[in-house]
Amino acid sequence: MPEEKEKTMVRGERRTAQRIKRVLADITPQHLEQLTKQARALTGDYEMVEVQGGASMEVIRARLSNLQQRHSTLRDKLTNAYPPHRDFDENMESEFRAGETERVFLEGESWNDDVITELQRRIWENGSTTRGEEDQDIQEKPELDEKPRESQSVTYQLHRKMIRGVSGGQISVRFDTGFGDEKYESYYCVLTSSSATDKLHVTEHSIPFFLPLRELEKAHLTTSPKVFIDYIGDILQAYVSRREQVREIKETKGESIGELYHSLSFSLIELMLKEPDYQVGVSLAYYNLKSELPTQSSVIAWSRPAELRPQTATKRQATTVHSSAFHLPKAEAFLLTIPLPKALDELLADLRATIGSPQSPAVIEATSLLPAETAL
């Protein structure tokens, strides 16, 4: 038995050695040259360009800038999910405008799951009546076809949401969004069931693909349509608010923003602010998609290299520049409670106060960070 184990080990070592030889045989000068050509083709560098020192850095910067522009363009296309749904949205908007005879406003306890249950029952009853009337001579009794349509065209309205039913067991929901005093786009979702008592499910929608519609459908729609509709409305409104906050800081503080990154849902935002003597990195995380304010923030400032500082800086300013990075816990705290455009104004004021303070960098670095709060 020991001899058989030893033979097995020897055969395994031989196979390993053979594999290594095959791998090494592939790494030939010709193979390396082929890999180099492939790498140049991927980067767009088809010609051998000899660059030295600063020239090579310029080439790298140019390529990096081009890559950033392409990334920004692609991100904008993915973020703007409205055009692909334009036909669907136009049809839904026409449906909400046409034939409306009654509007019921819901608030407080009047908005509950019973509203959806009753609407679903009425839709199926009216739908069956309509289908029965289609077999009759409509020209002889046109009034029979009008009454069900009137009852179907009742629209329920609550805060930034409108709900109405159509034949075939379908319930259409419109989610309106806004920022400040301005109204923005509306999103639509169609709920369908196979009978008056069957569970609802989503058949069509214009909700952006990066929001968790299907997860919420599985978690809430079968148990509580009200919770599902409210949740979708909240995350859509929060998404638009975060998006418009970023747009506003681009317009108002574009010259001070060195870099800006955000995820498609704006649930992660990172930006770099440029001050005469400092750079400030801000990182915001929105773990609660229903929140318009971040649930976690981080603000780190550090001094700019001397050669990059403006020549107009005074001698006093130069002496107050700290040599290491430090957190701004006060700024991290109010970023959790103030919308981003206003919070950045407070942040810069706090930074200038910190620069002029007599505290040493060690004291500032040791300042304890406030715990991240979870938004409701």
UniProtKB/TrEMBL annotation:
<keyword id="KW-0175">Coiled coil</keyword>
<keyword id="KW-0137">Centromere</keyword>
<dbReference type="Pfam" id="PF09496">
    <property type="entry name" value="CENP-O"/>
</dbReference>
<feature type="coiled-coil region">
    <location>
        <begin position="32"/>
        <end position="77"/>
    </location>
</feature>
<feature type="compositionally biased region" description="Basic and acidic residues">
    <location>
        <begin position="138"/>
        <end position="150"/>
    </location>
</feature>
<comment type="similarity">
    <text>Belongs to the CENP-O/MCM21 family.</text>
</comment>
<keyword id="KW-0539">Nucleus</keyword>
<keyword id="KW-0158">Chromosome</keyword>
<protein>
    <recommendedName>
        <fullName>Centromere protein O</fullName>
    </recommendedName>
</protein>
<feature type="region of interest" description="Disordered">
    <location>
        <begin position="126"/>
        <end position="151"/>
    </location>
</feature>
<dbReference type="InterPro" id="IPR018464">
    <property type="entry name" value="CENP-O"/>
</dbReference>
